[in-house]
């Protein structure tokens, strides 16, 4: 099994094989429009604009599994991202990223790189951890996706080299991205 074995639908409904991204460095992120982490779209777009010409692709996967923070349809999601954050990186159709209904891509990613916990030294890590403990304690068990804006970094050969939880700001990923480019 390889990252390149997966096919998904783009936000406009076209089937896209991840094989199309062979030889590229990838960031794969589950996203949402009504989340405290939604402003990460802006920094993901900045990273995309700076490094796309050097071989970086960012793939966004909207998901409504976390407190229904992505309620819109695919067209609404696309418009929201373009209007509010100027997103030009590829977006895909809404999918589930955890549980029995999780898309096989996200099952693969979360099994390949285990959850190592949230950064409790970071204010948003403390807040998210407390929120999950109180409202969704089952989310903290196992390696599944914990919340919106979990980001996976993939090298040019398709190896998953990093998992960055929602509390990691995209700009903090730049040193790892630059090593792979």
TrEMBL record:
The active site is at residue 35. GO terms for biological process: cellular response to oxidative stress. The keyword Hydrolase does not apply. The keyword Oxidoreductase applies. Residues 1-181 form the Thioredoxin domain. Pfam families: GSHPx. GO terms for molecular function: peroxidase activity. InterPro entries: Glutathione_peroxidase (IPR000889), GPX_AS (IPR029759), GPX_CS (IPR029760), Thioredoxin-like_sf (IPR036249), Thioredoxin_domain (IPR013766). PROSITE patterns: GLUTATHIONE_PEROXID_1, GLUTATHIONE_PEROXID_2, GLUTATHIONE_PEROXID_3, THIOREDOXIN_2. Keywords: Oxidoreductase, Peroxidase. Belongs to the glutathione peroxidase family. This is Glutathione peroxidase.
């Amino acid at each position: 099994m390889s990252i390149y074995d997966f096919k998904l639908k783009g936000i406009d409904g076209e089937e896209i094989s991840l094989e199309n991204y062979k030889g590229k460095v990838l960031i794969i992120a589950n996203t949402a429009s009504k989340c405290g982490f939604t402003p990460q779209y802006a920094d993901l777009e900045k990273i995309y604009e700076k490094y796309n010409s050097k071989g970086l692709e960012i793939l966004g996967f909207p998901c409504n599994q976390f407190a229904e923070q992505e309620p819109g349809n695919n067209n609404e999601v696309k418009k929201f991202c373009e209007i509010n954050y100027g997103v030009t990186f590829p977006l895909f159709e809404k999918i589930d990223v955890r549980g029995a209904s999780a898309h096989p891509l996200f099952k693969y990613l979360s099994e390949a790189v285990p959850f190592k916990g949230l950064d409790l030294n970071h204010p948003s890590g403390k807040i998210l951890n407390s929120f999950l403990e109180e409202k969704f304690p089952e989310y903290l068990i196992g390696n599944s996706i914990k919340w919106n804006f979990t980001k996976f970094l993939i090298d040019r050969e398709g190896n998953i080299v990093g998992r960055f939880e929602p509390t990691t700001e995209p700009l903090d990923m730049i040193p790892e991205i630059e090593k792979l480019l």
